[in-house]
Amino acid sequence: MPGAVTSPQATTPHDVPSDRAGEDAPARDASLTAESVVDDARWLAATDGALDADVRTWLDALSAELEIGRGDFTLLFTNDARITELNAQFRNIERATNVLSFPSGDDDYIGDVALSFDTVQREAVGAGRPFQDHMAHLVMHGALHLLGHDQDDEESAVIMERIETSALARVGIPDPYGAAATSDGKSES
């Protein structure tokens, strides 16, 4: 895992892949693969240091659900301050959000996803869900946006939610859209 991003200005979503230029990716079965960039240590504490293993498990479940080939991306684990900057810079929305996705348009390196610890934690507490369950949902949600899925209309939203729910079930996580879920569980990407 690369070192922490030390400056809020040091990395934008589209700058992260440049660190990977010329690197040979490890040989893997066909699946989604993410490189984690952590600039808020609370993510590591919240996952008992198993962040990369958790992400691998979740992406393997999503890959199996989609039956897709390989796709690499970067996951930026950050906080409200940094995600607010990214949201303002790339979407002209000056507020924090839970997850942002930045598709690359490339078939191999599919883009970047950023998650805010503060917002993810607030939403998990508000919905009465375990933090890691909500985190898994948002990692998958962000990856689906990189793969071209969206929730811009009812039909697309239903398809995306069905994929998320099935992939989460593969790792024993309950339906985030079920009766116990709150409207705060919806994501902006």
Question: How would you describe this protein?
Answer:
The chain contains 6 helices and 4 strands, in the order βααβαββααα. The model is unreliable at 1-28 and 182-189 (pLDDT under 50). With 189 residues, the chain is an alpha/beta fold. α2 crosses α5 (131-146) and α4 crosses α5.
Mean pLDDT: 82
Helix content: 40-55%
Instruction: Find the count of extended strands (DSSP E, 2+ residues).
Output: 4
Q: Give the end-to-end Cα distance, rounded to a whole number of Å.
A: 24 Å
**Are there runs of 5+ residues with pLDDT below 50, and where?**
1-28, 182-189
| SSE sequence, one letter per element | EHHEHEEHHH
The global form is: globular
Radius of gyration: 15 Å
Main beta-sheet strand count, sense and barrel state = 4 strands, mixed
Please outline the helices and strands:
Layout: E1 32-38, H1 42-46, H2 51-66, E2 71-78, H3 80-91, E3 99-103, E4 109-116, H4 117-127, H5 131-146, H6 154-170
In short:
The chain has helices at residues 42-46, 51-66, 80-91, 117-127, 131-146, 154-170; strands spanning 32-38, 71-78, 99-103, 109-116. It is α/β, with parallel strands linked by helices.
Describe the structure using short key phrases.
189 residues, alpha/beta, 4-stranded mixed β-sheet, 4 strands, globular, disordered N terminus, disordered C terminus
